[in-house]
Amino acid sequence: MDDLRDLVARNTASNQAVLDKLDRLETRLASVENTLTDIP
What we know:
Elements: H1 2-38
């Protein structure tokens, strides 16, 4: 049972890391979009 809990905990941490990275990429993409919009 502890193995399953450890697996779930590692999976949760991994998923959170992926979500954090996606959030940073989304922020960078928004910045690029704003830059492109500002170009006359």
